[in-house]
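Budget justification aside, the reviewers requested a transparent look at the raw inputs and outputs of the sequence design task funded under Objective 1. We therefore reproduce one unedited record. The lines immediately below are the structure tokens for a 130-residue chain.
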């Protein structure tokens, strides 16, 4: 029974963390730049190591509250579902493909910054002013 209150606390904390970002940091350009920066760092790390080192990742597991059941009973039940898939261990890479991927990621980042050069600066200023 303790797991449910802890899970709800985690959800509320997660939502609160999202709400704390200033509007300047929630634009599509800033979101894309942050994603591209993470992918660029990961790709550079792969090239430095000579292999990919994925972190353990699982497919999302959905959790919901369901009213009733398939047999028509009315009541409140806790339902969860979804498949978990874990990826572990180093993966071989093709350095030429990784370099091409890195170049593409860096080009995408440059295009976003060219279209909106102040995207990250506005977010940084907003975060610094807190």
């Amino acid at each position: 029974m303790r797991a449910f209150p802890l899970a709800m606390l985690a959800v509320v904390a997660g939502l609160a963390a999202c709400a704390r970002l200033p509007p300047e940091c929630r634009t599509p350009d800033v979101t894309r730049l942050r994603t591209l920066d993470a992918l660029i760092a990961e790709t550079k790390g792969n090239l430095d190591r000579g292999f990919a080192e994925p972190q353990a990742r699982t497919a999302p597991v959905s959790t919901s509250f369901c009213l009733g059941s398939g047999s028509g009973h009315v009541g409140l039940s806790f339902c969860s579902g979804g498949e978990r898939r874990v990826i572990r261990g180093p993966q071989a890479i093709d350095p030429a493909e990784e370099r091409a991927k890195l170049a593409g990621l860096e080009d995408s980042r440059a295009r976003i910054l060219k279209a909106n050069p102040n995207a990250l600066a506005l977010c940084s200023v907003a975060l610094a002013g807190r």
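Residues 28-49 form the longest helix (22 residues). The chain has one domain: 22-128. Computational costs for records of this kind are itemized in the attached budget.
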